[in-house]
User: What shape does this take?
Amino acid sequence: MSFKLNHLSYGVRLFASGLAVVALIGLGLATSTPSAPTNAAGNKYIGADKCKSCHASETSGNPHGKWLETTHAKAFEKLGSDDAKKIGKEKGAEDPQKADACLKCHVTAFGVPAAELKAKPEQLKNVQCEACHGPGENHMKARFAAAAAAGDNPDTSKRQVVPEGEITVKVEPKDCKVCHHDQSPTFKPFCFHERLEKIAHYDPRSGHKIEKPLTACPCDDDCGCKKGDCAKLPKKQ
Assistant: This one.
């Protein structure tokens, strides 16, 4: 499965999951298949454990650790719950953990050709970072190369600038809706901005943490913003 989620500010960094999107996806029993994030030639999915090697330090805000605290990190496990099995049975999926209709939104890179996977399928369970940011092999190679060029004493006080196109960064409501939509049996309309804040993983060196008041709601017109600060703001142009 692959549903994109880029990030709301430049301070939002790649974490090992993707992170993902906005709270738990529930059972993705939609009829359509999520589209994969744009995949540059030769780029492959590497899995959350590879992302962790660079994205688990407190210096970078420990995005991997923050992902582990989200329901995205337990998306596949959730399919094995009694509630999921009950819903699955009602929808014709006797075992949600084996049903394509569920796995496409509870497993990263589900349905992606094997040639585009560097990680083994069992290493891609749950909604990981690459479910939101796209395949990470090129990003990993580029960052390792940059670290090697920096030598033995790199300046860790500053966040490395990730060039556009190396990895997906900015998130939009449409990216969440690849799996968070009314064809999912557990879907509930939500405020994109508020949900994104629940899974955000900011690099403290970037200075882009969302603390200043919003001047416009970043959500789509039908995103479900019906209360809170976001609902009181004009929609983005």
In short: Residues 1-33 have pLDDT under 50 and may be disordered. The radius of gyration is 18 Å. The CA atoms of residues 2 and 36 lie 4 Å apart. Residues 48-209 form a domain with the Flavocytochrome C3; Chain A, domain 2 fold (CATH 1.10.1130.10).
